[in-house]
Design brief:
- This protein has helices spanning 2-8, 11-40, 42-49, 65-75, 134-144, 148-173, 180-183, 192-222, 224-231, 258-265, 326-339, 344-372, 383-415, 421-446, and strands at residues 84-86, 95-99, 113-118, 123-129, 273-278, 286-292, 304-309, 315-319.
- Strands 4-3-2-1-5-6-7-8 form an 8-stranded antiparallel beta sheet.
- The chain has 14 helices and 8 strands.
- Helix content is 55%, strand content 10%.
- Strand 7 and strand 8 form a beta hairpin.
- It folds into 3 domains: 1-50 and 133-233 and 325-381, no CATH class; 51-132, no CATH class; 383-446.
- It is of the alpha+beta class.
- The N and C termini lie far apart (66 Å).
- The protein is globular and about 85 Å long.
């Protein structure tokens, strides 16, 4: 058995496995990687494409949650049931009201109604369905390849295959002491195919750790039951905030409002930030108030939750992440680690580049295979063309800055008499910066 295992894991078989993975599912790896990279900045891209969702001049206080909820209900009177109001993460953001199962998209796996509300005026600005916008469509590609339940499971399996590709690639790259200098070479002058191969090896080395983390966390997100079994926890699936709690109070004519329920919920956590309020569904429903404590790694989907009875106004249940077991803490890290949220701005950028690297690894690997099998001929890279292009860009840059400098100086002379002393000082500084930049570029042009 040991001999058979050793034979299967020899270099030749692993090379074939690495190649066959790329040829069979490499394109899916690229698609998931690119869509995941863009989805890291999903909120920013959505605002860029929909500038009406940005509050350009925020001032004053938010309207009450009861008034905002009333505006949502007035805009969608036939959407009866539970709504979730998600608070913005910046003063310029909208409150988003979510209705999970609208009749228009009822049979889709996940396509809630998203209603954007200006929190300062309680004005409903936009109503959209998940999947109908570019960023949500892109996230559907990443999570389920836009083929619903089957796609969700398939993406999890692709995560395991990506992990296998990373591990086999690392093994094939791993050098002996005698060849480490050779394997770390970068050969830009030996033809396109060798350059592509070197790029493939270096990209694989630099992105391997991040891709292994992303593949493992992606698999666990696709199969939450495995995550819960592994961590010994329950109700830790992404988007889940604990058990279903029902009201045992007698219905009356004075139900608790959203603002009052939120005030009660923040009693145990006075310093926590309000993230979501889910309204009761029916007479037995309760408010589910989602908060974020400073110690939580999850920013958008924290686990601090308080259930408040809609009739009595009393707290029914509390979920406090500071009391989580080790398994629950592990489970709570999976989503923010996969999205890069847990790693801050630098981590999100690394994750963004890692997703793009999957596509580049696929292209460079396929090029290498096509060359080795004789389907594509190698070519020398003509760097002289690049040198000419560089010289042309320098020349045009100098001409542009010369024209810009002349125009700027004339403009400054015209407006200076009408400006305060501070503005004059700023313009003088700007003038010196332009002059110095022009001097540096002319110097670079002289050193051909």
């Amino acid at each position: 058995m040991r001999f058979l295992f050793t034979r299967l894991l020899n270099r030749s078989n692993l090379l074939k496995a690495h190649l066959y993975l790329a040829l069979s599912v490499g394109l899916f790896f690229s698609l998931i990687g690119l869509s995941g990279s863009l989805s890291i900045y999903r909120a920013d891209i959505d605002l860029l494409l929909n500038p009406e969702l940005i509050i350009t001049n925020p001032h004053g206080n938010y309207q009450t949650l009861d008034k905002i909820y009333a505006a949502v209900k007035a805009a969608h009177p036939h959407k009866t049931g539970s709504w979730t109001l998600e608070m913005p993460q910046s003063p310029n953001g909208m409150i988003t009201a979510w209705f999970e199962k609208p009749s228009e998209t009822f049979f889709q796996l996940y396509a809630p109604l998203m209603v954007s509300v200006n929190p300062y005026t309680a004005e409903v600005v936009s109503s959209r369905f998940w999947g109908s916008t570019f960023t949500t469509w892109l996230l559907n590609i990443h999570t389920q390849l836009n083929i619903e339940n089957f796609g969700w499971g398939l993406v999890g399996i692709l995560g395991i295959l990506l992990l296998s590709s990373c591990l086999t690639g690392l093994y094939l790259w791993w050098p002996s002491l005698n060849t480490i200098k050779e394997i770390l070479k970068f050969r830009p002058h030996n033809g396109i195919m060798l350059l592509a191969f070197d790029i493939h090896r270096w990209l694989g080395l630099l992105s391997s750790i991040s891709l292994i983390v992303l593949a493992c966390t992606g698999f666990l997100l696709s199969y939450p039951s495995i995550l819960e079994t592994f961590s010994g926890s329950s109700g830790m699936e992404h988007g889940q905030t604990g058990p279903t709690i029902i009201s045992t109070a007698i219905p009356n004519n004075h139900p608790t409002g959203l603002s009052a329920a939120t005030f009660v919920a923040q009693g145990p956590f006075p310093k926590a930030q309000l993230r979501r309020v889910t309204t009761p569904a029916g007479d037995t429903g309760v408010y589910k108030i989602n908060l974020r404590q400073n110690s939580e790694i999850n920013h958008r989907h924290p686990y601090t939750t308080v259930w408040v009875d809609q009739w009595s106004g009393q707290i029914k249940e509390v979920r406090n992440p500071t009391l989580f077991s080790r398994g629950e803490i592990f489970a709570s890290w999976i989503w923010p680690l996969h999205t890069g949220e847990a790693l801050g701005a630098s981590g999100r950028l690394i994750w963004f580049l890692s997703g793009i690297s999957v596509f580049l690894l696929y292209v460079t690997g396929i090029l290498r295979w096509l060359c080795k099998t004789g389907r594509v001929r190698d070519k020398k890279i003509k760097y002289t063309n690049l040198t000419r292009l560089k010289t042309k860009i320098k020349t045009q840059s100098v001409n542009f800055i010369n024209r810009f400098y002349t125009y700027s100086m004339n403009l400054i002379e015209k407006i200076t008499p009408y400006l305060s002393q501070i503005a004059v000082d700023i313009l003088k500084t700007l003038k010196n910066i332009i002059k110095y930049t022009l001097h540096v570029i002319k110097g670079m042009q002289g050193k051909k």
